[in-house]
Structure formats: structure tokens, C-alpha cells
Design a protein that fits this description.
The protein has 9 helices and 5 strands. α1 packs across α9 and α4 runs parallel beside α5 (about 90-105). It is an alpha/beta fold.
């Protein structure tokens, strides 16, 4: 089973690249952001709680996210693998993911980190906010807070996978196709 953690700061292009990687490698996209947005759009209790947290630029609790991931894994037990997009966001979540996958007789194959500079991230997020209408991508203060929260709380997840020799860094700047080719080059080494 090929299980990839697609990692990088908000605006690094994880969602864009995940779509292309899913098609090529026939994996299941597991995006916590998409799962949360579905809950928000449906107006569920979880969605209302999540919206309040996201609109402030904060991260949703581990308990909520891990529960959603666990449900998705159970619902797709015969999958060829998963692309985890936006998860894990903390070292505690990385450890919890390792434990969940171990229970299913598999593991994370690699964490692929999309490297993108700060100014490029902010520009991408503001542009995405104009196109998508996402409130959290239209406010520069919220964007800056998300990037700071990422640097403080999420970036340390790299250390977790580096200690397991599963960390791979790919430059996330260039055309979508150039970045995709660089990602495939690294993933093909795992097969």
C-alpha cells in the first residue's frame, strides 16, 4: 500500500498536486480541509465548531481530525493507498496516524514536503481567496496567522518523518507540471 503525506504550508499547492497524483497512482485523497468544508457546508455541529476555529486561523482539534481520518480509513479498507493532504498537522497527529495505519497492517511510505517561500504563499492564498470566495484566504491577518501557526505547530512534523527516514523535499515553485514531475520522480523511487 502506498501512503503518502503531502506536506507544506497553506498555499503550497498540495490540493492541486494531490488531484494529479491521485489519478496517476490510483490512490484515495484524504484531505482534512475538504472533509471539514463538507461538514461546514452541511451545517453539522462539527462543521459549525470547525468554521468558528478556521475563521480565526486556528487549527481544528486533534480529536476531531483523527476521528474523521479513522472513519475514512475504515470506509476504504481495500484502497491501493492514500494521499494525506493537510494531515498530520502536529507531531501528535503524526504519531496517531502511524498507530492507525499500523492497526491496518500498513504505514506511511513517505512524507513529501512542498517547499514554497513566505511571499509566494501569501500571494497564492490571496489569489485563491479571490477565486474561491474562501473567507480564510481573503484576510491578510488570518493568512499571516495561519502561516505562523504552521511554522510553530505543523512544521515540526517534518522531524517525525525525518527520524523514520521518510522525509522527501520537493521544490513547490514552478509550473504545475514541473512540480508534478518532480513529485512523481520521488514517488516512483518508493515503488
Amino acid at each position: 500500500m502506498l501512503n503518502l503525506v503531502l506536506f507544506g504550508p497553506p498555499g503550497a499547492g498540495k490540493g492541486t498536486q494531490a488531484v494529479k497524483l491521485l489519478e496517476k497512482y490510483q490512490l484515495i485523497h484524504l484531505s482534512t480541509g475538504d472533509l471539514l468544508r463538507e461538514q461546514i457546508a452541511a451545517g453539522t455541529e462539527l462543521g459549525i465548531q470547525a468554521k468558528s476555529i478556521i475563521d480565526k486561523g486556528d487549527l481544528v482539534s486533534d480529536q476531531i481530525v483523527i476521528g474523521m481520518i479513522d472513519s475514512k480509513l475504515k470506509a476504504n479498507q481495500n484502497a491501493r493507498g492514500f494521499i494525506f493532504d493537510g494531515f498530520p498537522r502536529t507531531p501528535a497527529q503524526a504519531k496517531a496516524l502511524d498507530e492507525l495505519l499500523e492497526l491496518r497492517g500498513t504505514a506511511v511510505s513517505a512524507m513529501i514536503f512542498l517547499e514554497v517561500g513566505h511571499d509566494e504563499l501569501v500571494a497564492r492564498l490571496l489569489n485563491r481567496g479571490k477565486i474561491s470566495g474562501r473567507v480564510d484566504d481573503q484576510n491578510i491577518s488570518v493568512i499571516e496567522k495561519r502561516v505562523r501557526v504552521y511554522a510553530k505547530e505543523t512544521a515540526p512534523v517534518k522531524d517525525h518523518y525525518q527520524s523514520q527516514s521518510k522525509f522527501v523535499s520537493v521544490k513547490g515553485v514552478g509550473s504545475v507540471e514541473e512540480i508534478f514531475n518532480a513529485l512523481c520522480h520521488e514517488i516512483d523511487k518508493l515503488l
